[in-house]
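I had to read the description of the data format several times before I understood it. In essence, backbone conformation is discretised, so a fold becomes a row of integers matching the chain in length. I therefore recommend that a typical entry be quoted early in the introduction. For illustration, here is how one protein appears when written out as sequence plus structure tokens.

***
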Amino acid sequence: SIVEFIPVIFFSPIAGVFVDSHNRKMIMIVSDLLNTIFILIVPTLIIFDAILPKETVLFGITCMVFLANTVNRFFMPAREASIPRLVNEDELGIAVSISQTTFQLIMIIGPIVGTLIATLIGFYFAFIIDGATFIFSAIFISLIKTDLKPIRDPTDTKYERPSLLLGTKKVFQIKSLRFLIIIFSVLIA
């Protein structure tokens, strides 16, 4: 649980700045492919449980959870920032609502379906199926015809490439965000 929340605290502030200056489609595709790798490493580590010390297997799984959640910190803002580019302005509210509702349903239904698959056909297959879903996601994202690169007006200097350091520094200058980061860091510790 701790390694699930550490990326939220440390990578969320810079992820949005990064997404705003890079190709969002590529960020989502790379995120999905990396998640596939991280997910498929878990059952591989468990297969070697008899050979490797238990601490090594646990450490490996913990690293995969950390890396997957770190990658998700970049996928989520890329997905959210892409929605306005995929729909008309008058459809934006509906599109955001559908996106959020779908995400919430996946967060509820996903663990239930995963548990059923793991129970019925084994957890190795559950991990393989989960990894395959990320591959399908990457394929479907790559089929999007719309360019999801950030739009910049070359004459407008406010859209110069934002600095990750500047974005992180700005987050810590906002008292309420700094307070939340400190509180969550203490709670996680």
